[in-house]
Write a structure and sequence with these properties.
- The complex is a heterodimer of chains A (386) and B (276).
- Chain A has 386 residues and is of the alpha+beta class.
- Chain A has 2 domains: 235 residues, 3-Layer(aba) Sandwich (Rossmann fold); 109 residues, OB fold (Dihydrolipoamide Acetyltransferase, E2P) (Beta Barrel).
- In chain A, 24% of the residues lie in helices and 31% in strands.
- Chain A is built from 9 helices and 21 strands.
- A 6-stranded mixed sheet of chain A has the order 6-7-8-3-9-10, sandwiched between helices. A 6-stranded antiparallel sheet of chain A has the order 13-12-11-14-20-21.
- In chain A, helix 3 crosses helix 4, helix 3 runs parallel beside helix 5 and helix 4 packs across helix 5.
- Chain A is elongated and about 80 Å long.
- The two termini of chain A are 27 Å apart.
- Helix content of chain B is 77%, strand content 0%.
- Chain B has a single domain, classed as MetI-like fold (Orthogonal Bundle), CATH 1.10.3720.10.
- Chain B contains 13 helices and no strands.
- With 276 residues, chain B is an all-alpha fold.
- The two termini of chain B are 43 Å apart.
- In chain B, helix 8 crosses helix 9.
- The chains are: A alpha+beta (386), B mainly alpha (276).
- Chain A: Keywords: ATP-binding, Nucleotide-binding, Transport.
- Chain A: GO terms for molecular function: ABC-type transporter activity; ATP binding; ATP hydrolysis activity.
- Chain A: This is sn-glycerol-3-phosphate ABC transporter ATP-binding protein UgpC.
């Protein structure tokens, strides 16, 4: 791909994009099922916002409401302050990349890409030029006369993105665009989407069920569950300070190790063992859900204070690191991230330990995080790119 | 039953069914190449001793035969096109909108198909009389349209169902309204279904006899099916061999059309998704 030039950016005219506001939007379907309830969200001009959550969490419905393909039951949608709730998709100046790409099978790649411009009154010549430029950026020059049926999955994906950028819309919407690609292609397209966003910094709303995709692509991540927003934050905020048990269990690969425990006089007890002696003070005694990231657990001398005897069950060597599944007293089954060179073998008996500063605590009833601020000394500051 | 025996049984049944249709056709062919004398020998001489193409020559050189063929073609094609045009909005609504009583309405549309034209012919005759459309091609075409709509709605609905909704949504985002989306995206992609519905209607019209027989009296306006009947009843001379030749020539266009497009029809009726 060519190097981005300032001239190209200027011609793109999309350097800022729109501000998107969702104000208390809700969607109830005729059968009474609630897809989205009272959702508030703001996407700043040029921001790349990823909606992530398990299937059925309402993320696609939210995106479709922004696109104008679905009408919200309640609430307002504003694009640059203008209320577009009652407008149809055709009048919102948004572009969308669909999961199945939704390329018109009976049209050539060039016509697919130029269709939206032509429908909006652009001349044949203008359309041709815009399509040629988008095709050059996406390296589709040689495919312009082909039909979508003659393209590979990755090429179709690029045509779908080309169709979106040709129009220079105020808002880009992506509905799980990479989920039909194989793992390798998915990673390279991930990079391509990010590069494209760097080139056309248009406000983007991107839906995925893949938390890795969300973490790697987003300026801000919106974690959704059962029609509600669980947490909004930068990828690192969401990772370091999950606002709820759901987020803790969803973000991270492998996710956070969670286990029921009790706070007693400033110490954490689980299965009758005192696991961590000096948990930051200020929480009342009682049951909690405790969480430790796989990288927060370390091998320890079995005699050390607070060391939990453990047995190694399973190894997953990943090359750069090795994931191990241990069964530890007090913790149950936990994933631990080890150095790839660590000498480990299934059946190994050892002990695990953790720092109280790495401990996450959640209310076992509501699932909300308790005193996540207690870890600020270890967590990266808010908004930091690390 | 072994797989082989099952195969044989299948072929046997297929053969029996084929025979049901092929025996009368071959009988027609046998009659059409006979001389008037041989016609009286009946089934005794299935293969004529002295086959002749004279009957076909007589039929094909008859000027009124061409006129009746043209009449048939005109009212069938226009009736078929009209039925498809009338069925498209209905089929689209059934395919894309969810509304109360949709399934019931779909069944009701099919029920209309079950009503024999015989039952409605007398009231139809009176309607057409009141409208001053008796003895006009437009009247017959109108009835063909009405008769063809139910089947067309079903065939078209299943074609529309196979066009992914996301394509229409993409068109909407690209700036198209409903009607434009239907014309530019959905209809071209449902093309095989549209063609199949048109052809099925045209062929059904081709085999229509009662409707044109009742509604048309001017002999110059009747389609080929009625013309052959009129011809058979108008003369006492032995015309069986000529009738047979005329019948064969009359069914030939429908037969040729069917052979040419049967794959299309099978695909439209049985499925086969739009490939992106």
């Amino acid at each position: 791909m060519d190097k981005t030039t300032a001239e190209e950016l200027r011609r793109a005219g999309a350097a800022e994009g729109a501000r998107l506001n969702l104000e208390g939007i809700a969607k109830r379907f005729d059968g009474g099922s609630v897809a989205v309830s009272a959702l508030d969200l703001e996407a700043l001009p040029g921001e790349f916002v990823v909606l992530v959550g398990p299937s059925g969490c309402g993320k696609s419905t939210t995106l479709r409401m922004v696109a104008g393909l679905e009408a919200p039951t309640e609430g307002r949608i504003r694009i640059d302050g203008r209320d577009v709730t009652a407008l149809g998709a055709a009048d919102r100046d948004v572009a969308m990349v669909f999961q199945d790409y939704a390329l018109y099978p009976h049209m050539s790649v060039a016509r697919n890409m130029g269709f939206g411009l032509r429908r909006r009154g652009a001349s044949r010549e203008e359309t041709r030029r815009a399509v040629a430029e988008a095709a050059r950026i996406l390296e589709l020059d040689d495919l312009l006369d082909r039909r979508p049926g003659e393209l590979s999955g990755g090429q179709r994906q690029r045509v779908a993105m080309g169709r979106a950028i040709v129009r220079r819309p105020r808002l880009f919407l992506f509905d799980e665009p990479l989920s039909n690609l194989d793992a390798r292609l998915r990673i390279s397209m991930r990079t391509e989407v990010k590069r494209l966003h760097a080139r056309f910094p248009t406000t983007t709303l991107y839906v995925t069920h893949d938390q890795t995709e969300a973490m790697t692509m987003a300026d801000r991540v919106v974690v959704m569950n059962a029609g509600r927003v669980e947490q909004v934050g930068t990828p690192m905020e969401v990772y370091d300070r999950p606002a709820s048990l759901f987020v803790a269990g969803f973000v991270g690969s492998p996710p956070m190790n969670l286990f029921p425990a009790r706070l007693e006089a400033g110490a954490l007890h689980a299965e009758g063992r005192r696991i961590l002696p000096d948990v930051p003070a200020g929480l009342p005694d009682g049951p909690v859900m405790a969480g430790l990231r796989p990288e927060a657990l370390r091998l320890a001398d079995p005699g050390a204070q607070g060391a939990m005897p453990a047995r190694l069950d399973l190894l997953e060597p990943l090359g750069a690191e090795t994931l191990a599944l241990w069964t530890a007293e007090g913790l149950g089954e936990v994933w631990v991230r080890h150095d790839a060179r660590a000498r480990l073998a299934p059946g190994l008996r050892a002990a695990l330990t953790a720092h109280a500063a790495d401990l996450h605590l959640f209310d076992p009833g509501t699932g909300t995080a308790l005193r996540s601020g207690a870890f600020e000394n270890r967590s990266a500051p808010l908004g930091s790119p690390s | 039953m072994s797989p082989r025996a099952a195969d044989r049984a299948t072929y046997l049944v297929a053969l029996l069914i084929a025979a049901l249709f092929l025996v009368p056709l071959s009988w027609l062919l046998s009659l059409s190449v006979r001389t008037p004398q041989e016609v009286y020998l009946g089934a005794a001489r299935y293969l004529p001793e002295d086959p002749t193409l004279e009957n076909f020559r007589l039929v094909l050189t008859d000027r009124s035969f061409g006129l009746h063929l043209w009449n048939s073609l005109k009212i069938c094609a226009l009736g078929g096109a009209g039925a498809v045009a009338a069925a498209i909005p209905a089929a689209y609504a059934f395919s894309r909108f969810s509304f109360r009583g949709r399934t019931g309405l779909m069944v009701a549309v099919l029920l209309v198909q079950m009503v024999s034209p015989l039952v409605v012919l007398i009231p139809l005759y009176r309607y057409m009389d009141a409208l001053g459309m008796l003895d006009t091609h437009l009247g017959v075409i109108g009835v063909y349209v009405a008769l063809g709509v139910p089947l067309s709605v079903w065939v078209l609905k299943s074609s529309f169902d196979r066009v992914p909704r996301s394509l229409e949504e993409a068109a909407e985002i690209d700036g198209c309204g409903r009607a434009e989306t239907l014309v530019r995206i959905t209809l071209p992609l449902a093309g095989p279904g549209v063609a199949a519905a048109f052809i099925l209607n045209t062929m059904m019209g081709w085999s229509q006899f009662l409707v044109p027989f009742i509604l048309l009296t001017d002999t110059g306006k009747v389609p080929i099916s009625v013309a052959i009947f009129n011809f058979a009843g108008s003369t006492s001379a032995s015309t069986t061999q000529l009738l047979a030749a005329a019948c064969l020539v009359a069914i030939l266009p429908a037969l040729a059309l069917f052979v040419a497009v049967q794959r299309l029809i099978v695909r439209a009726v049985s499925g086969g998704a739009v490939r992106g």
